[in-house]
Amino acid sequence: MFFERHESGERAILVQLSLDDGAPAQDPREFEELVVSAGGEPVAFISGHRRAPTSKTFVGSGKLDEIREAKEAFEAELVVFNHPLSPSQERNLEQELCCRVIARTGLILDIFAQRARTHEGKLQVELAQLRHMSTRLIRGWTHLERQKGGIGLRGPGETQLETDRRLLRARIRTIEQRLERVRSQRAQSRRSRQRAEIPLVSLVGYTNAGKSSLFNRVTEAAVYAADKLFATLDPTLRGIEIDHLGKVVLADTVGFIAHLPHTLVEAFKATLEETLNATLLLHVIDIVAEDRDYLVDEVESVLAEIGAGDIPQLRVYNKLDLAQQSPRILRNEQGVIEAVYLSARTGAGIDLLELALSERLQDQVFQDEITLAPSEGRLRAALYDVGAVERESWDSNGDNRLRIRLPLKDWERLKN
Length: 416
Fold this sequence. Notes:
The chain has 416 residues and is of the alpha/beta class.
């Protein structure tokens, strides 16, 4: 928008180094899937090892020559690094390679920009892009960034740069205000659900674990689901009926990924609030993923980062058809259901999931028929105030029979 760049192309050179920084190695297959999800065509994968990245171009001179040779041999127009790059490193690499260079964060932002469908989703993507762009704005004005004497070197270089920075800041403020209104609307909807005491169950998990497929299977909805990273970006909510429990709201949310950029976490707060306010989290796990335990840890890490680490969880091991296993339920020593094994694609084990939801949510909902004496009118009034009374009748002696349903914590408070 604010600076000239090389034309982007689909043929891409992928670069991933192993660094002595103590961080776990990135999955090259996931990196390749990210590029494909963005519409790129990987033509070469360049790997290597460095003790630490160089400050100028991240890679050493020998590796830079290797990238340049691959780029020319395959006539690639894009080089993608599976690492965070500083603005100066991106600029130096583009000057050396004469093509567009993007880092992992820019790649994920591009995928998000393609996936956003709702007005809210587009606003969140634009906010993340603008925050990312604001750190790289100077690159387009390198010919004006120093004021010094001489013919052709005078002029409003800094003024132009500051003008663009002000435009960015103004647009960011506008988007933040719009998203704040979205958050207010979501809060209003949540208050309505809370008054009706409807539990919210939020699907979370690593990207491409099968959350949308499971959502469609349980709710009979038609949410877009595909075997690609970040197929879902905008949250979708649907009401379902669970036996012996009643109505439950199920939310499908954006998938997590390792090293999720902080700009995305900040920009997608409005979406992540559906996770933060959930009664129960369904952590969907790809049972056939080779690095399954690592992916589970990454999701747990992101949940802790956004403040959802203490919300009760039920693990759902999906894609059981690929593992050629039978559906089953796993209970802990206290008999509480901890995990359900199922296949969202075939529907095997969905009945076990509904049983697990009923049991787990019953633990947090009090639902029973109680009898109140005429002297207990204050409790009857309080139950009506919170919308807990489903049915009422009277005995011949004047006692009230109430069928009530409300969160267990509220029932304990009212009893006291």
